[in-house]
């Protein structure tokens, strides 16, 4: 059963501007493991990655119904599997979490679906 769905659309240039203004920006948004991946990239790909994680975490918080504030960026960790697919590696949600992140031009979009496949009830 689907318990929540969140979508976020973000301009990559806005994330780049925030990062250039505050070098600690990436450390606020990314977990330690995400930051290690981020530091392995450079230029455009680095900003796409940061914007994608931002959008993914915003979409997750919307699916939870809280928004960022009650949930922090460090509460959610988004990694990639061996095929490059993103997955939520850590979060306060106990059920199944599906995530998709897509980049096009100056935009990144993320969608998160929270579901409870086992019928244990509402985990939100």
How would you characterize this protein structure?
- With 124 residues, the protein is an alpha+beta fold.
- The protein has one domain (2-115): Ribosomal Protein L22, Chain A.
- It contains 4 helices and 5 strands.
- β4 and β5 (107-115) form a beta hairpin.
- The chain is globular.
- Its cofactor is Mg(2+).
- Its main location: cytoplasm.
Structural topology:
Blueprint (H helix, E strand, L loop, with lengths): L1 E10 H10 L3 H5 L2 H8 L3 H22 L12 E4 L5 E5 L5 E9 L2 E9 L9
Antiparallel strand pairs: 1-5, 2-3, 4-5
Helix pairs in contact: 1-4
- The CATH homologous superfamily name equals 4'-phosphopantetheinyl transferase domain
Task: Report the β-strand fraction as a percent range.
Answer: 25-35%
- CATH class designation: Alpha Beta
How many individual domains?
A: 1
> How do the helices and strands follow one another from N- to C-terminus?
EHHHHEEEE
Query: What is the approximate shape?
Result: globular
Radius of gyration: 14 Å
The largest sheet has its strands arranged as 1-5-4
The major sheet is characterized as: 3 strands, antiparallel
